[in-house]
Write a structure and sequence with these properties.
Chain lengths: 219, 503
C-alpha cells in the first residue's frame, strides 16, 4: 500500500518537474524563465522531502533544505536582479521555433525512456518509474541551452538541467552520499555566481545579452 | 600526511593573496615559494609509490566517514608530479613578479593591482582543486574538484575585459560546465549501478570500492554511464568534437594560465576519464571503451591537423596542437598495455612540452603586440633566447629526436602495429605528417624575416638571458632526458599506471 503511494507520488512529482522544464520552450520573457526555475526548484525540494519520508532516509531532509535555500531563494534573488537590468531582452527568436521544439521535446522523452530502460529494469526501488522523466528533463535542458540566444536564458536552462540531474539521483539512489551532495551544491553556487557576473560583463561590452552577437573569435 | 603538504600550500597562497591588498610583488613570490613545498611533497609521494606503497590520508568523524579520503597510486603519482611542476613554473613566471612593476610602459599587457590580485587568488585555488582532483579516492569528490577547476579558471580568462576575452570565457564556462555536468550524470549512473547491486554504502563512490564491485555491475548500465562520462570529461579534455572551447580559451587567457590549462588541466581531465575507463573495462571487457576512444581519437587528429594548416594566430595554433596530442593519447589508451605505456609517457611529455611553449608565448606577447603569425616575424633577431627555445620546443613537439615526444610517439605506433591496426596507424601517421609540415612552415614565418616596427615593443632592448629563461631550461632538460633515456623510477611509475588501466 505504502509502496503503491510512493510509486504514484514519485512519478507524479517527476512529471510535474519535467513539465516545468518543457514550458520554457515557449516562454519568452526572462521573468517567466526565472519564475519557472524557482517553482521547479520548489517542486524538486518537495520531491526530496517525500522521498526522504517514504524512503525513510532523514538525510534527504537536510538536502531538501539546502536545495530550497540555494535554488528557490538565493539564486532566484540574483535572477530577479538580473531580470531588472536585462528584462527588455526577450528570447524572441530561438534557433529552433516553438512548434518544432515541442515535437522534439516529445522525442527527447521517448529517447529518455529507451535509454533508461536498463536502469528501470535493474532497480527495485519504488521510485524507479520516474527515472526516464528525469533523464528527459536532462535532455530538454541540454536542448534549451543549445537553442537559446540570451545569455541569461542559457544560464537558467543550465540550472534546469542541473535540477534534472538532482532528480535523477534522488529517484535512482535516494541521493548521492552526503559529502558529494554538499560539494555539488557548493559548485553549483560558485558556478552560478561566476556565470551571472559574466552576463553583466557581456552586457557592458556588447550592449546586449544576445550571444548571437558574440563573433569576435575566428581562427 | 604528505598530502597536507601537497594541497594546503596553494590554498594558503590563495588566502594570502586574497587578504593582502593592494597586490604587491612579494605576495606573488610567497605563492611561488609555497608551491615548492607542494612540489617537494609530490616527489615524496611519488617516491613512496615507486617503492611499492600506496599512501592514503583520511579521518573518521561521528557522522562523516572520510577514511582513505586521499589516495595516491601510480596513476595519481604521475599526475601529482605533473601538476605541481607546471604549477611551480607558472607561479614563478606569472604576471606581477617583478616584470610589470619595473616597466610601466607595457601598454596592453600591464595589469592593474586588482587584476593581479585576482590572478593570484584564483590561480592558486585552481591549482588546489587540480591537486584534490587527482588525489581524491572518491570519484564524486574528483568530479566536484574538476568542476571547481572550470569555475576558477574561467574567472581569470577575462583578466583584461574586452570583447574577445569575454566571448572566450563565456564559451568556456558554458560548454565545460554543461559537459562536466553530463559527467556527473555518468557518476550518478555508476553509483546507481553500485547501489542496485550492493545496497547503499557511504564509501560506494570510492574508486577502490567501485573497482572491487566492478565485475558484478550491470553491463547495460555501465555502458550508458561511460558514454556520459566520456562526453563529460572528454569535453573538459578537449577531445573532438567537443573541443570547440579550446582555441578560444587558450587564445584569450593570460599565457601562464594557458600553460596550466593546456598541460596540467588537460591531464587532470584525461585522468578522470581513465579512472572510469578502468572500472568500465572490468565490467564490460576491453572492447567497448577502446572502440569509442579510437573513433574520437582519430577524429581529434583529423580536425586538429587541418586546423593547424589554417591557423593564423599562434596561440590558437598551439590549442589545435593540444587537440592533436589529445587524439594521439586517446588512441594510445585504446591500444592495450603497450599503447597505454606510450600514452602515459606521452602525457608526461605533453605536460612538459606544451607548458614550455605557452611560457615562451608569454615572453613573445611582451614584445609583439599582435597574436597573428604573420605579424610575429624575426623572433630570432628580437628575442634570440626565446626564439631559440621556441624553435627547440616546437621541434620536440612535432616529434623530432632527441625530444621525449619522439620516443612516446614511436612506442605508440609500435603498439598499434603490434595489435594489427595498420590502417588506423597509417591514417594517424598521415595526419601527423600534415601537422609536421604545417608547423615547419608556420615556424619559419615566425623565426626569420624582419619584424615590423609597428608591431613590436621597441622600448625593450634585445633580450638578455634571465632567470625566467633559466627556469624554462627545466622543461628542455626534462624533454631531452626523456628522449635519450627512461629513468627507472619513471618506468616503475608508468608500469604501475599501466597495471591499473590495462589488464
Amino acid at each position: 500500500m505504502n509502496n503503491q503511494l510512493f510509486f504514484q507520488l514519485s512519478t507524479l512529482g517527476a512529471s510535474v518537474i519535467l513539465l516545468f522544464g518543457i514550458t520554457l520552450l515557449w516562454r519568452k520573457s526572462m521573468r517567466s524563465y526565472a519564475e519557472t526555475f524557482k517553482w521547479q526548484s520548489v517542486a524538486l525540494s518537495l520531491m526530496f522531502i517525500v522521498i526522504g519520508y517514504l524512503g525513510k532516509d532523514p538525510e534527504l531532509y537536510a538536502v531538501a533544505a539546502a536545495l530550497f535555500i540555494l535554488k528557490a531563494i538565493i539564486i532566484p534573488n540574483y535572477l530577479r536582479r538580473m531580470e531588472k537590468r536585462f528584462g527588455d531582452d526577450r528570447e524572441l527568436k530561438p534557433y529552433v521555433n516553438v512548434a518544432t521544439s515541442l515535437v522534439l521535446a516529445g522525442l527527447f522523452v521517448l529517447l529518455a525512456y529507451s535509454v533508461t530502460r536498463p536502469l528501470v529494469m535493474v532497480s527495485d526501488l519504488p521510485t524507479r518509474a520516474g527515472m526516464p522523466l528525469a533523464m528527459g528533463l536532462i535532455f530538454v535542458g541540454l536542448f534549451l541551452i543549445i537553442t537559446r540566444k540570451k545569455a541569461m536564458a542559457q544560464i537558467i536552462s543550465f540550472l534546469v538541467m542541473e535540477n534534472g540531474i538532482a532528480l535523477l539521483a534522488a529517484l535512482g539512489t535516494y541521493g548521492t552520499p552526503l559529502i558529494v551532495e554538499l560539494g555539488v551544491f557548493l559548485d553549483a553556487l560558485m558556478g552560478f555566481l561566476v556565470m551571472q557576473v559574466f552576463v553583466y560583463h557581456i552586457h557592458d561590452t556588447f550592449e546586449t545579452i544576445d550571444v548571437d552577437q558574440m563573433n569576435e573569435l575566428k581562427h | 600526511m604528505y598530502f597536507l603538504f601537497l594541497i594546503l600550500p596553494s590554498l594558503l597562497a590563495a588566502l594570502i593573496a586574497g587578504l593582502i591588498r593592494p597586490y604587491r610583488a612579494f605576495v606573488g613570490f610567497i605563492g611561488a615559494f609555497l608551491s615548492l613545498i607542494s612540489l617537494g611533497a609530490s616527489l615524496v609521494i611519488a617516491a613512496q609509490v615507486v617503492s611499492g606503497q600506496i599512501p592514503t590520508w583520511g579521518f573518521h568523524m561521528e557522522w562523516l566517514n572520510l577514511e582513505d579520503f586521499l589516495r595516491a597510486d601510480g596513476l595519481s603519482a604521475i599526475l601529482v608530479v605533473c601538476v605541481t611542476v607546471v604549477a611551480s613554473l607558472a607561479l614563478f613566471l606569472s604576471p606581477g613578479l617583478g616584470r610589470q612593476v619595473q616597466n610601466p610602459h607595457w601598454g596592453e599587457l600591464a595589469y592593474k593591482p586588482n587584476q593581479l590580485q585576482r590572478f593570484h587568488v584564483f590561480t592558486n585555488l585552481f591549482i588546489t582543486s587540480m591537486l584534490l582532483a587527482v588525489t581524491a579516492n572518491n570519484v564524486g569528490v574528483m568530479w566536484i574538484a574538476i568542476e571547481a577547476t572550470t569555475i576558477f579558471s574561467a574567472i581569470i580568462i577575462p583578466l583584461k575585459l574586452n570583447k574577445a576575452s569575454i566571448e572566450a570565457s563565456w564559451k568556456y564556462i558554458l560548454i565545460c560546465s554543461v559537459g562536466i555536468s553530463l559527467a556527473f550524470v555518468g557518476t550518478v549512473l555508476g553509483y546507481f549501478d553500485f547501489v542496485s547491486v550492493a545496497g547503499r554504502v557511504e564509501s560506494a563512490l570510492n574508486w577502490t570500492t567501485l573497482l572491487k564491485a566492478a565485475p558484478n555491475l550491470h553491463p547495460e548500465v555501465m555502458r550508458l554511464a561511460f558514454v556520459f562520462l566520456l562526453v563529460g570529461f572528454g569535453t573538459k579534455a578537449g577531445i573532438a568534437p567537443l573541443h570547440t572551447w579550446k582555441p578560444d580559451a587558450y587564445g584569450e587567457s593570460p599565457a601562464p594560465l594557458t600553460a596550466l590549462m593546456s598541460s596540467a588541466l588537460f591531464a587532470v581531465a584525461m585522468y578522470a576519464l581513465l579512472r572510469w575507463k578502468a572500472v568500465t573495462d572490468v565490467t564490460l571487457g576491453l572492447g567497448f571503451s577502446n572502440k569509442l576512444l579510437i573513433v574520437l581519437g582519430l577524429l581529434s587528429l583529423f580536425i586538429a591537423a587541418f586546423s593547424i594548416v589554417l591557423a593564423r594566430d599562434y596561440k590558437r595554433m598551439f590549442a589545435y596542437s593540444s587537440i592533436e596530442h589529445t587524439g594521439l593519447m586517446c588512441l594510445g589508451f585504446a591500444l592495450g598495455p603497450l599503447g597505454t605505456f606510450a600514452a602515459l609517457l606521452h602525457l608526461i611529455n605533453h605536460t612538459v612540452g606544451k607548458s614550455l611553449m605557452f611560457f615562451l608565448v608569454d615572453n613573445i606577447e611582451h614584445k609583439y603586440r599582435s597574436p597573428l603569425i604573420t605579424n610575429t616575424r624575426g623572433l630570432l633577431k628580437t628575442m634570440p633566447w626565446t626564439g631559440g627555445f621556441f624553435a627547440a620546443g616546437l621541434m620536440f613537439l612535432i616529434g623530432l629526436p632527441p625530444g621525449g615526444f619522439f620516443i612516446s610517439e614511436f612506442a605508440l605506433f609500435r603498439a598499434g602495429f603490434a595489435l594489427n591496426h595498420p590502417w588506423l596507424m597509417g591514417a594517424a601517421l598521415v595526419l601527423l605528417a600534415v601537422v609536421f609540415v604545417s608547423f615547419i612552415y608556420q615556424i619559419n614565418t615566425m623565426l626569420y624575416g624582419d619584424p615590423d616596427p609597428e608591431n613590436i615593443n621597441t622600448e625593450r632592448p634585445v633580450e638578455q638571458f634571465s632567470w625566467r629563461l633559466a627556469l624554462l631550461l627545466v622543461n628542455i632538460v626534462v624533454l631531452v632526458t626523456l628522449g635519450l633515456s627512461l629513468p627507472a623510477p619513471l618506468v616503475a611509475l608508468i608500469n604501475q599506471g599501466v597495471a591499473i588501466l590495462a589488464r
